[in-house]
Specification:
This protein has about 120 residues and is of the alpha+beta class. Helices cover about 20% and strands about 40% of the residues. Strand 5 (about 55-60) and strand 6 form a beta hairpin. It is elongated. The chain has helices at about 35-50, 80-90, and strands at about 5, 15-20, 25-30, 50, 55-60, 65-70, 75, 90-95, 100-105, 115. The chain folds into two domains: about 5-50, no CATH class; about 55-115, CPE0013-like (CPE0013-like fold, Roll). The mean pLDDT is about 95. It has two helices and ten strands; from the N terminus they run E-E-E-H-E-E-E-E-H-E-E-E. The chain has a five-stranded mixed beta sheet with strand order 8-5-6-10-9. The structure holds iron/sulfur cluster. Iron/sulfur cluster binds near residues 11, 15, 34 and 35.
């Protein structure tokens, strides 16, 4: 695995970190540049299994607004984000929809559900 530069996004300081496997120990990472221990956990997750919570909107009919805000209730693998957005793009609902309603269960075979983030 190669050396990566990344910015910790867990707080406004935005520490710039250098991350690479320790020589001879591919399962252990060397992390530099973080100002606190949270950065190490962030760097490890981002290096080994980057994930993202996806937020978007879907079409809703018979409602006050034309689009309903939605998000994944768990992060999905980062390389699936565009596939998730494609899947979401085809969704059309009819109101009313309550906040927290599951719009798509186990999105694209993941353990993440797409849920409404407001009532509409
Ligand atoms: S490493 Fe710590 S101080 Fe730096 S951005 Fe992350 S959370 Fe903030």
């Amino acid at each position: 695995m190669e050396r990566k530069e990344m910015i910790c996004i867990l707080c406004p300081l935005g520490c710039k970190m250098q991350v690479h496997p320790k020589p001879g120990k591919t399962s252990e990472l060397s992390v530099r540049g973080q100002k606190c221990g949270l950065g190490i956990d962030y760097a490890y997750d981002e290096y080994t299994n980057p994930t993202r919570t996806v937020t978007s909107t879907v079409v809703i009919h018979n409602a006050l607004l034309p689009r309903l805000p939605v998000k994944t209730d768990k992060p999905v693998p980062r390389d699936m984000v565009f596939k998730v957005l494609e899947e979401i793009a085809g969704v059309e609902l009819t109101g009313p929809v309550e906040i927290g309603t599951v719009i798509i269960k186990e999105l694209l075979g993941t353990d993440s559900n797409l849920v409404a983030t407001r009532s509409l």
